[in-house]
Amino acid sequence: MADGAAPVLDVRGLKTVFRTRGGEVHAVNSVSFHLNPGELLGVVGESGSGKSVTMMSLIGLLPSPPADVRAGTVMLGDRDLLKISADELRDVRGAKVGFVFQDPMTSLNPVFTVGNQIMEPLIRHMGMTKKQAEVRAAELLALVGIPDAAARLKSYPHQFSGGMRQRVMIAIALACDPDVLIADEPTTALDVTIQAQILELVKDLRQKLGMAIVWITHDLGVIAGIADRVMVMYGGQIVEQAPVKDLFANPQHPYTRALLKTIPSLTGEREARLQVIEGQPPILIGAPTACPFRDRCAHAFARCFVENPERRAIDGREVGKGHDVACHWAAEAAHA
Amino acid sequence: MLDIAKPITPLVQVRGLKMYFPIYSGLLRRHTGDVKAVDGVSFDIMPGETLGLVGESGCGKSTVGRALLRLYEITDGNVVINGTDIATLSPEALRKTRPQMQMVFQDPQASLNPRMTLADIIGEPLNEHTDWDSDRKLARIYELMDAVGLNRRFANRFPHEFSGGQRQRIGIARALALNPRFIVCDEPIAALDVSIQAQVVNLLEDLQEQFGLTYLFISHDLSMVRHIADRVAVMYLGRIAELSPRDALYARPLHPYAEALLSAVPEPNPALARTRQRIILQGDVPSPANPPKGCNFCTRCLKVFELCRQVKPELIEVEPGRFVACHLYSDTTAAGSTGTPEAKEHNQQGVSQ
Q1: Residue A148 domain-assigned (yes or no)
Q2: B261 touches chain A (CB under 8 A)
Q3: What residues in B contact A280, CB-CB < 8 Å?
Q4: Which one, of B22, B57, B65, B23, lies nearest residue B41 by Cα?
Q5: Domain residue spans in chain B?
Q6: What is the residue range of A23's domain?
Q7: What would the CATH number be for the domain defined by B1-46+56-82+232-353?
């Protein structure tokens, strides 16, 4: 996508804190990113890195308390989703922003038919009659590749396999033709051959419908295959952000580099021993005052323990537009 | 016992293993059918070897692992571990053989008792199978904690105080307590983050070298299996589709399912990922309660032909050390065996000797 086009989603300085008995957990710390029209943005990170919480914060899906979205702006078009009322937000969810969750088993309601669940947003958001919605629902099911769609509308979720349920979830998310589709680990619960089917479907749908997608995953292989741009999250922060080719060809952050090395390859030279990232992910209690990766980083020096690094562009472009990284070591290496 | 001079015999020999789970239905709960989770599986594992067992969920790979240690009463077949047929042992005799075969489970959260301390958990096998005094047990517990990289200071802590990777280390220490020869690792890294997976896999490899362990490594992660296994068995719907040495399998899979499975794994390199030719299988795995009449893979296979829908292919050696159950490779033998498919089924061989 051209840089000139206005982003469909623009998030600035998002902070989400969970209040727990052990103290305040800073799950999302000053996260800024944007999503261009038609773009697929990959979000990579391990469990607890804040990738899901970031996306759920955007559209008010976190229960409060304990969650507290403390700062930031989330511009969808010209509206700030953090400022609008709960009712308005309900109109945004499903209509403007579609969401596909990880587990297709638990995110469909077992007591309603699949058709019923696809028709619900159509009636709620698009003001369709039941008849119109039924026709559209059948179209959607056919679009996501379910054979004999009109008849399958009467089926219940348990009559579908895992891969087909995820197709139904995608149909529901696409029902109202959203501007943004957020997919949170949509293929993690699926087998690889079924995952391959879903990835093909998403590539196909992007060509047909052209919506912008945020794709959350921990699988770098999936990202490599479908994303245009990637952001890597660690300890509630974006530590690196780049176009997908640059990230894999020229990773800057020590965490990204280590992560790429820890996964054994299916092709190429087989390594005698896997590279490891020693230690454990950080506990995010209290506001961060240092780099979250410092204790596991091979390049950490004094500054990393006293100052949380800001994201800096490494290619002279604006942060977020090209390749940027939040790392003192990478910044010094770039200037040296 | 030193048997260096003798030819190496397999530590684990599995022949025609079947594990059916009965289905009861109707008002009278009649036995109306079986879920054929494992339907005639044969293979060998050599001492010190790691056999990878891969396949998608529901293919029966975990059931094989559990049946091998007789955590289930198996329906049919033989499981010979270190010269003893586990399948037919009496309960007391089975108990005596337990120390030599152990298991590491998938979910380190669910497989550790939350009310026992780390020392209790690791020491429990010692309580059951030895008459050591508490000092000797504690010494052994510390030794095991050192071996898996757990700090001795943690001995009196509870499982919830540990991270997923550390919990998996506790599970591994428990499995090692009685000096086993054979360990079934059932998806030991599936529940862990990528950066922690590598730590646990390296630990398993170190321990194998240190204690001369033999592993059955069950996983759905094909790239990790490529790293750890010497030979790999690919399962589909309760049967082995292909069993080959690692490098041969990954370089040139013979069975159409193995080929499709490998091509479906996402490639973590954008340049390669976008040019690679993928095989996208259509549809889903059939139900193991009602498998197809012929080859179990015939409903999704891209190279299917008429014979595949009629006759189940046997696992035969098509190249030295490579075993494939596919009619594409069994043209000559298939013609002779069509009359007696049942009789041949038990002759599946897992390894050349």
Answers
A1: no
A2: yes
A3: 163, 165-166, 196
A4: B65
A5: 1-46+56-82+232-353
A6: 9-96+176-335
A7: 3.40.50.300
DSSP string spanning A129-153?
-HHHHHHHHHHHHHHTT-SSHHHHT
How far is it, in rounded angstroms, from Cα A254 to Cα A239? 10
- Asked if this assembly's ipTM is beyond 0.90, the reply is no
Hey, is A31 helix, strand or coil?
A: strand
Q: In the 8-state DSSP scheme, what is residue B48?
A: T
Distance from CA of A58 to the nearest CA of B (A): 25
- Asked if B195's CB is within 8 angstroms of A262's CB, the reply is yes
Sheet holding A23-35, edge to edge: A23-35, A9-20, A67-76, A79-80
Residues 6+ apart with CB under 8 A from A205: A143, A144, A170, A174
CA distance B147 to chain A (A): 17
Q: Helix B256-264 vs helix A192-209: angle between axes, to the nearest 10 degrees?
A: 50
| Tens digit of pLDDT at every position of chain A (336 positions) | 445 678 999 999 999 999 888 888 899 999 999 999 999 999 998 888 889 899 989 888 888 888 888 888 999 988 898 888 888 888 888 888 999 888 777 888 999 999 999 999 999 888 899 999 999 999 898 888 888 888 889 999 988 888 888 889 898 988 888 889 999 988 887 788 888 888 888 888 888 888 899 999 988 889 998 999 999 999 999 999 999 999 999 999 999 998 888 888 777 777 778 888 888 888 888 888 899 999 999 899 999 999 999 999 888 888 888 899 999 998 887 666
Q: Tell me if A132 is assigned to some domain.
A: no
How far is the C-alpha of B198 from the C-alpha of A262, rounded, in Å? 6
Residue B277 touches chain A, beta carbons under 8 Å: no
CA–CA separation, A278 and A272 (whole Å): 18
Which residues of chain B are within 8 Å of residue A292 when distances are taken between CB atoms?
Answer: none
Q: Return the closest-CA partner of residue B296 out of B314, B319, B282.
A: B314
Neighbours of A94 (CB within 10 A): 21
CB contact under 8 A, A267 and B284: no
Burial class of B147 by CB neighbour count within 10 A (0 to 12, 13 to 18, 19+): middle
- The reply to whether A142 falls in a domain is no
The span from the CA of B228 to the CA of B202, in Å, is 9
Q: Counting every residue, how long is chain A?
A: 336
Number of domains comprising chain A: 1
CA atoms within 13 A on the CB side of B156: 1
- What is the rounded CA–CA span in Å between residue B349 and residue B353? 10
Chain B residue with the nearest C-alpha to that of A273? B202
Task: Please enumerate in sequence order all residues whose Cβ is within 8 A of that of A126, keeping only pairs 6 or more positions apart, or say none.
Answer: A95, A133, A175, A176
**Which chain B residues are Cβ-neighbours of A262 within 8 angstroms?**
194-195, 197-198
Cβ-contact A189, A106 below 8 angstroms:
no
Query: Within the 178-197 window of chain A, which residues sit less than 8 Å (CB to CB) from chain B?
Result: 191-197
Cα–Cα distance list, A28 to A162, A287, B320 (Å): 31, 10, 55
Q: How far is A80 from chain B (nearest CA, A)?
A: 34
Running DSSP on this structure, what letter comes out for residue B180? -
* CB of A283 less than 8 A from some CB of B: no
Query: CB-side exposure of A169: number of CA atoms within 13 Å?
Result: 28
Among candidates A191, A221, A275 on the partner chain, residue whose Cβ is nearest the Cβ of B56? A191
3-class DSSP assignment, residue B310: helix
CA distance B273 to chain A (A): 5
For chain A, the first-to-last Cα distance in angstroms comes to 32
Q: What is the pTM of this model?
A: 0.84
